[in-house]
Design a protein that fits this description.
The protein is an alpha+beta fold. The protein contains 5 helices and 16 strands.
Length: about 280
């Protein structure tokens, strides 16, 4: 698989007075350690964007957290391609699904019909595969994230909500170079604010000043982590205080809003299913 990755920022955070210009670079640098893009290799045609995911460890079980509808698209394949959002090291690798176990809590394409529909999945990796990925990435410890979530709910402070994942619309068509297909993949760091929560489903609304830079379709972002990033500082300098995974992108509601499976759904529905079905 030939693939190149260019991570882009949709937004310029210097345009908001509550956030200094360098915070987007710090956010990207941190959460890209946990992020993966998921692609399907098409023989003779390069690679096609499928979705995104987050590297997580659930009670010692290392794997990929993503959406149920994304996992349904790959669970019966023999392999998928993993794309990293890091600027150094190996950005691509092939994941043979015979070495993995996928747990889908629930999946449905009829998202708009019910806000109660779950859309979660976890692909558990073998110890060998997980260790090789961990050489250049980080598996988020779900238990520590839970503790941090409980602590941060009581804390007040400046924060932004951010998602990182692939965008099919921004990715270029595959081309041939030498004897292999090159599939240029593009990811986006998309920031906004959680504006609604119902039955564990979160709605993230884009910031108004960057609407002209948004894609028509966020296809490929599904399964990408939704992070709440707390920061401190002033207009000249800032620093990240804490980052918490609070959900994953699930589907696009309209031009400015994305529905996300919230932390409660991950913690109360997915984690018990993984605990029950995936052996340590």
């Amino acid at each position: 698989m030939g693939a190149s990755m260019k991570v882009i920022r949709e937004i310029n955070l210097s345009t908001t007075s509550s956030m200094p210009h360098d915070i987007s670079d710090a956010i990207l640098s941190h959460i890209s350690n946990f992020a993966v893009g998921l692609v399907i290799r098409e023989p003779g045609r390069g690679s096609k964007v499928l979705g995104s995911g987050v590297l997580v460890s659930i009670e010692g079980r290392r794997g990929i957290l993503t959406c149920g509808h994304v996992a349904e698209a790959y669970e019966k394949l023999t392999e998928i391609g993993l794309i990293r959002f890091v600027a150094v090291g190996q950005q691509k690798r092939v994941l043979r699904l015979a070495d993995a176990q996928t747990i889908i809590v629930q999946s449905s394409d009829a998202f708009s019909e019910s806000k109660e529909v779950l859309d979660l999945a976890f692909t558990a990796l073998s110890a060998e595969v997980a260790s090789s990925i961990e050489a250049q990435g980080v598996f988020l410890n779900i238990e520590k994230n839970r503790a941090k979530m409980e602590a941060m709910t009581l804390a007040e402070g400046k924060h932004v909500d951010a998602m990182l994942g692939l965008i099919a619309e921004f990715s270029d068509k595959p081309f041939i170079e030498g004897r292999e297909f090159i599939s240029p993949m593009r990811g986006a760091l998309h920031t906004g604010h959680i504006c609604a929560q119902e039955n564990g489903l979160l709605t993230v609304k884009a910031m108004p000043y960057n609407l002209h830079e948004l894609p028509r379709s966020f296809g490929g972002m599904s399964g990408g982590g939704l992070w709440r990033v707390y920061f401190a500082g002033d207009e000249k300098e800032s620093r990240i205080v804490a980052t918490v995974l609070c959900g994953i992108a699930s589907w696009q509601i309209d031009d400015t809003n994305i529905a996300c499976q919230g932390w409660d759904r991950i913690d109360q529905a997915l984690v018990p299913a993984v605990r029950k079905n995936v052996r340590l």
